[in-house]
Design brief:
alpha/beta, 5-stranded parallel beta sheet, two-stranded antiparallel sheet, 17 helices, 7 strands
Length: about 375
């Protein structure tokens, strides 16, 4: 098995290729020399070009237009500027790989390209699930483009994405949704997908009306919109944040509320969720230190889902935790979370138990 690297700067690409070579063989070709015939037999194309350089972008576009290839393309990003991921997606990225590559990144690549792409842990990933995940990824790009151009947020796309999640979870489990989502490389995008899926599953478990499920789902999809103002090198940093970086991250709820108020298309509940989903009942949360009755029920739900989602997912500096242990940690957060909602959340949380255990692939890579 091998992958093909296409690069406009082999010196810059060398560290990424060295790390990838630990698991997969590599062949390399310069951007100026690439043609469709070069990638025959490769598992995928690893594209490492300067996504801020117009000449490299235009050259790659010409190659794709003149000799369209069916092989999937993974783009390397460096966290230099906020538009890297939207630019990569516009050039046909199947997925994104951070330059500070980790073992877990390679495991995801192997799961995707060394096995059948429509299966995960023996489960079939439905077309609706695949479409819903792709739509959320596109939605996050649309957020950035709208905000950077001072245009309106894509409200109809938000509602459509939420409906797709609901349709997906009506025909398959939240566990399968989680397995599919975990193949996505960007933590920021993946977190939005996990939070949105779990919110829909929890709302359905509670027997909410369709209108209420949609209302909460919109809040879930928008809850971290303020992160578009946070630099990528902080959002996807491969290590623990410094105090100054943590302080910058903690501004995202305020940024989100500001964006939504300026846009004025979404109701107060969505603004409330974006601004207050890190508030805790004992007043120790942020950004306003709200406590008790100052925190709405919809925010209490989103806070529980948001914390659980972070615990069960991989981060650059920590492994994911099993669902049962994650749930127990939340039970032990005495006085911080709504106890009644947390107890009601238990069936949804534990339904993801098998999806949060180490898979045989992961165990083999770790040994």
């Amino acid at each position: 098995m091998y992958f093909l690297l296409i690069s406009d700067n082999f010196k810059r690409s060398e560290p990424v290729v060295k790390k990838m070579n630990y698991w997969l063989s590599a062949k390399s070709i310069a951007l100026s020399d690439y043609s469709e015939s070069c990638d025959q037999g490769a598992l995928f194309l690893l594209v490492d070009i300067d996504l801020s350089d117009r000449e490299s972008i235009d050259q790659f576009k010409k190659i794709v237009q003149s000799a369209p290839s069916t092989i999937e393309k993974i783009f390397v990003t460096y966290g230099k500027f906020q538009a890297e991921i939207p630019q990569a997606n516009a050039l046909g990225a199947a997925s994104i790989l951070p330059s500070e590559i980790k073992k877990s990144d390679v495991v995801k690549i192997l799961r995707r390209y060394a096995t059948l792409p429509k299966k995960n842990n023996g489960h079939i990933i439905s077309e609706k699930t695949t479409q819903a995940i792709e739509d959320i990824g596109s939605l996050n790009d649309s957020f950035y483009q709208a905000i950077s151009s001072n245009g309106p947020l894509p409200k109809s796309q938000v509602i459509s994405s939420g409906n797709l999640i609901a349709e997906s979870l009506k025909e398959s489990s939240i566990g399968i949704w989680l397995e599919a989502v975990k193949q996505h490389d960007s933590y920021t995008y993946r977190h939005c997908m996990i939070v949105s899926g779990i919110t829909v599953a929890f709302a359905m478990q509670l027997g909410m009306r369709n209108a209420d499920v949609q209302r909460l789902t919109v809040g879930a999809l928008m809850h971290d919109i303020g992160k578009v103002h946070i630099p990528l090198n902080i959002l996807d940093k491969p290590g623990k944040l410094s105090p100054s970086e943590r302080a910058e991250i903690n501004k995202h709820p305020s940024y989100g509320a500001e964006i939504l108020r300026k846009d004025a298309q979404f109701d107060d509940e969505v603004v409330d969720i974006a601004l207050h989903h890190h508030e805790l009942l004992d007043g120790t949360g942020y950004p306003e230190g709200l406590a008790g009755d100052q925190i709405s029920d919809s925010v209490r739900i989103m806070t529980i889902v948001d914390i659980f989602s972070a615990l069960i997912d991989d981060r650059p500096y920590k492994e994911s935790m099993p669902a049962d242990k994650s749930y127990q940690i939340m039970l032990d957060m005495d006085g911080k979370l709504d106890t009644d909602i947390l107890k009601a959340f238990k069936p949804t949380a534990l339904a993801m138990q098998s999806s949060t255990q180490d898979t045989p692939t992961h165990q083999a890579m770790a040994s």
